[in-house]
What we know:
There is one protein chain. The protein is α/β, with parallel strands linked by helices and 544 residues long. The protein folds into three domains: 3-218, Spore Coat Polysaccharide Biosynthesis Protein SpsA, Chain A, CATH 3.90.550; 222-352, Rossmann fold (3-Layer(aba) Sandwich), CATH 3.40.50; 366-526, Rossmann fold (3-Layer(aba) Sandwich), CATH 3.40.50. 31% of the residues lie in helices and 22% in strands. The chain is built from 16 helices and 24 strands. The chain has helices at 29-43, 55-62, 82-97, 116-127, 209-219, 237-247, 263-272, 282-292, 306-313, 361-365, 390-404, 441-445, 458-465, 501-512, 515-526, 533-542; strands at 3-8, 23-24, 27-28, 46-52, 67-70, 103-106, 133-139, 145-148, 151-154, 169-179, 193-197, 223-228, 253-259, 276-279, 296-300, 318-322, 334-337, 350-352, 377-381, 409-414, 432-436, 450-453, 469-473, 490-495. The strands form five sheets. A seven-stranded mixed β-sheet has the order 5-4-1-6-10-7-11, with helices on both faces. The longest helix has 16 residues, at 82-97. The model has no long low-confidence stretch (mean pLDDT 93).
Amino acid sequence: MKILIVIPARGGSKRIPRKNVRMMNGKPLILYSIDNALRVVDKYDADICVSTDDEELGGIAESRNIEIIWRDQSLAADNITLDPVIYDAVKKMENRRSENYDIVITMQATSPTLRSQTLINALEAFIDSDYDTMISCVNRPHLSWRKENGRIVKNYEKRLNSQELPHNFLETGAFLITRRGWVREDSRIGENITVYETAQREAIDIDSEEDWISAESILRRKRIVLRCVGRQELGMGHIYRCLSVANKLIGHDVLFVTDSKSNIGIAKLEEAYFPYKTIENDEDYEKILKNYMPDVVVNDILDTEESLIKLERKYTRRIVNFEDMGPGAYFADAVINALYENRPEKPYNVYEGSDYYFIRDEFLIESPKEFSSECRNIMIMFGGADPANLTGKLYEICQVLHGKMPQVEFHFLTGFAYAHKDEIKPIPELNIFVHHDAKRVSSYMKQADMCITSQGRTIFELASMGVPAIVLAQNEREAEHVFAGMNNGFINLGIGEKVDTITIIKTIMWLADMPHVRAEMRDLQLSKKFEKGQERVIRLLLND
């Protein structure tokens, strides 16, 4: 089966002058269609030609060893449709090559976002079918109206949501595949027609400056793998951080990868509606990398091994790790350690300290409450999973504290994956209130005069809200997070399981009764600026 691909491209363009030769994200616009056509030649017996009236366009095509069909001026006018242009190119190529083509593909030079695999898939489907013609389309069902006899009338019978409306296929201009017998001077479309639906991102046909801007934005998109974990013993911080990062990567393609043991992490990813895949081992992971071919891999899995980074390096150019103190860190392009600072031995590529904390959006738009000399609201929060169940320890303590501090409300915020949530119930008569899986934590922090928390990422959020806090670490690794010290506005009691109840009670009562200390702690916290942290992290991820 012999195939001819015709790319029609005039030199003139009124809306975007010389658009077919202008640089689109680093290369002339016409080369996107030529390069896609060359992918077809790699797989099929196909010829390519560019039909043009322009010497510069012809030179660009010839740089890829593409044959040129020079158009007569009669075929280069503004009012000429593509049908006679394609017919002219087919006839000339058949004479030049002494060929009889079976299939003719028209590919316009104005569809740079079309992926070569989409074109190949469409051609395979066409060859295996009995259709005369296949047209690339995008499905855009909308409630629409038309003008009829001077009146505006509706094009629908019943108002429905867009997903319930019938298909409304619009031609994208990316490709039109047809049997040779239907290529005539006045038509390229046979009697038995089908459409090939393309993704919205592949449907841009450059006709305006807005189209150009949209296409260039799509072509700059990067494919990013976010590998993270979320298990009871590890907590949910890695999942939450990657979700925050993903929300800032609008315009890029993001895929989460997690291991099958991360059951609570998987549940959160499903709730967030991001695409994800689960793996059992490195073999599964390599299959995903090979298929996805990411531009960037982000590891948020704590310490990595050299072997993992070398595996990822086979399929990506950039690797960025969070909180990695393992041997693999030395082979990553960047390691972001907001929580671990001033380590004597560390890779050269480490970006550490609170300047690189990726704070959630809600804390950037929320403002701290006015300082109160009276402590009336104490918040207790130990993260998304609280693997050491410090919530349970404080729940018992707060029942005792009510007798000593009857004017204080105790607000427990339990996380999405907290395993003992059924045991922590509100006791209104003791001023104990429970809020499970709060969607906007900052609004609770804004009411708090003080907080008891673990030593993870929450300390940065509390600092941004100016909430003095008593810190109890979940484990020894978390105890290494140096930000949670008095110099930043925190009283750190060490590993929570090792701190006795009396010490915790005395510390809470002492801090509540010391407004000047709380004020000093608050000032230290608010002296830290987190606004640029997101920007710094995203720049590191994308290598901008």
